[in-house]
Amino acid sequence: MKVLKSEKFTAHNSLTKFINQQKIEREDILSINTPNFASSSEYVVFFYHDENVELPKKGFWD
What's the CA gap between 46 and 33, in Å, rounded? Predict the structure, then answer.
């Protein structure tokens, strides 16, 4: 079963890498936005993902 999840990123390349590594389908991405309008270097992605699959923990540089 797919559930709604979210992840926060500090750079667009980290966001892109995450989407590619997790093989998140285009249809499963609900939105990608910047919560802080003053800083465009922060991104939040909302997406549907299998609830049984554990997402990897992000490191300091991810």
Answer: 9
Q: What is the pLDDT of residues 36-58, one digit of tens each?
A: 766 667 899 999 998 887 777 76
Judged by phi (left if over 0) then psi (alpha if -120 to 50, else beta), residue 56 lies in beta
Q: Cα-flanking dihedrals φ and ψ of residue 60, to 5°?
A: -60, -40
Q: What is the pTM of this model?
A: 0.78
DSSP string, 34-53: -S-TT-TT-EEEEEEEETTS
Q: How far is CA 57 from CA 8, 26, 42, 61, in A?
A: 12, 22, 18, 11
As given in the structure block, the two tokens for residue 10 are 């500090």
